[in-house]
Amino acid sequence: MKLSKLASEIAESPTLALNEEARILRERGEPVIHLGIGEPKNKTPINAILSSAAKLTSGEVKYTPADGTLALKKAIIRYTEDNYNRLAAPENVIVTNGAKQSLFNIFFSILNPQDEVIVLAPYWVSYPEIIKMCYGVPVIVTPEDGTFTPRFEDIERSVTSYTRAIIVNSPNNPSGAIYPPELIEKLVDFCERKGIYLVCDDIYHRLTFDRNVAVPAYNFTKRDVENTNVIVINGVAKLYGMTGFRVGWVIAPRELVRVMTNVTAQTTSGVSPVSQSAAEGALNGLQSVIEALRLQIENNRNVLLQEMKTFNGARLIEPKGTFYALPDLRAFNNNSVELSRFLLKKAMVVTVPGKEFGMEGHIRISFSGTVKDVTEGIARIKWALDPTSPNEIYIGEKKMIRDWM
């Protein structure tokens, strides 16, 4: 069988692969704890359910405009004004099948073969692969000072005549870091001077802790939405816990939105009207659901920090947002893939190797689930790795004895 060279070189999604492995183990009755998935455990907001149900009961579930329904666009415009203090026109908005399609359509629309995109490590696993799928070249910039925040000087040094965009994800998946306003300001100014795009993946922008704020890039430009080099991506998956509805959106200059609309029209045709109605309901409904989810996740983060204090050999930079932590476990194994496999085999805990995020020797832990999952999951990881932890532990109903140290 002959396959496309480009498609064959695209890496498998590690999170989806781990989800499948965890599902198989659970079906066998194994007491697996899943700390790998970025999915809140809350129920779908009632306004989203009622809005999508109304669309279904109407029986009018037909094609929608490729760039999204006008009703949802109006809700997105209002959300943008409320949260970014920026006015957008309907022509500046495109609705997509999740923020992942937003990213793909942006890069497909702005990249020519061998054009470069600056990717700041640690990065979400799909960034480099999506760029490659659009015939672009990801250029990774990694912090060299032990933090999760690259220096502006290193980013600037990585820009060439082929650079078309810099992608910023703050709060950051997988580290939970929030980039300082000074860095965002420098990036906005630099991109507008150089005529390159600053692609802001803001999917976690309101999931922050300890009164920290992820300052929007829009704050540092005097240009309007139509004329700025800032592109903003958002969606309902994380803030409202609506991962399965697959609704994201992009705020961008209308010419880019027009091209992205053509791309959508020739690929997916658009987003399900039922999902769009659900997103509209969430955006127009009570916004206290976001704060309730944020408080729950912040509590989980605090529990994680407390548990990690007694983890000898692990180094953790405190997450300021999202629902991820990226502990440094190089004291136990430099190979994060081996480490994650070991933890799944011995401790029945799913984590994601840091290598997938450009941070070898780390593992990503999601604390988006329950407090019980966090406490028991970290206890199992400590038992498997930390020689100062108790030698015996119960995993499910089975008493386990550590015999590899």
Please provide a written account of the structure.
- This protein is of the alpha/beta class and 405 residues long.
- It folds into 2 domains: 138 residues, Aspartate Aminotransferase, domain 1; 223 residues, Type I PLP-dependent aspartate aminotransferase-like (Major domain) (Aspartate Aminotransferase, domain 2).
- It has 13 helices and 14 strands.
- The strands form 4 sheets. Strands 2-8-7-6-5-3-4 form a 7-stranded mixed sheet, sandwiched between helices. It has a 3-stranded antiparallel sheet with strand order 9-12-11. It has a two-stranded parallel sheet with strand order 1-10.
- β3, α6 and β4 form a beta-alpha-beta unit.
Ordered list of secondary-structure elements with their pairings:
Layout lengths: L4 H4 L5 H14 L5 E2 L11 H13 L11 H15 L8 E4 L1 H13 L5 E5 L5 H8 L3 E5 L10 H7 L4 E6 L12 H14 L2 E5 L28 E6 L12 E4 L2 H12 L7 H12 L3 H21 L15 E2 L10 H12 L1 E2 L1 E2 L9 E4 L4 H15 L6 E4 L2 E4 L4
Parallel strand pairs: 1-10, 3-4, 3-5, 5-6, 6-7
Antiparallel strand pairs: 2-8, 7-8, 9-12, 11-12, 13-14
The amount of helix comes to: 25-40%
**Overall shape:** globular
N to C succession of SSEs: HHEHHEHEHEHEHEEEHHHEHEEEHEE
Number of discrete domains: 2
- Model regions low in confidence, pLDDT < 50 over at least 5 residues: none
CATH architecture of the largest domain: 3-Layer(aba) Sandwich
CATH homologous superfamily of the largest domain - what is it?
Answer: Type I PLP-dependent aspartate aminotransferase-like (Major domain)
Please, how many helices?
13
How far is the N terminus from the C terminus?
A: 47 Å
- Spatial sequence of strands, sheet with the most strands: 2-8-7-6-5-3-4
Instruction: Let me know the average pLDDT.
Output: 95
Largest sheet, in brief, is: 7 strands, mixed
CATH class call of the largest domain: Alpha Beta
Q: Which structural class best describes the helix and strand composition? A: alpha/beta
Number of extended strands: 14
CATH topology of the largest domain: Aspartate Aminotransferase, domain 2
Q: Tell me the strand percentage band.
A: 5-15%
Gyration radius (Cα, Å) is: 21 Å
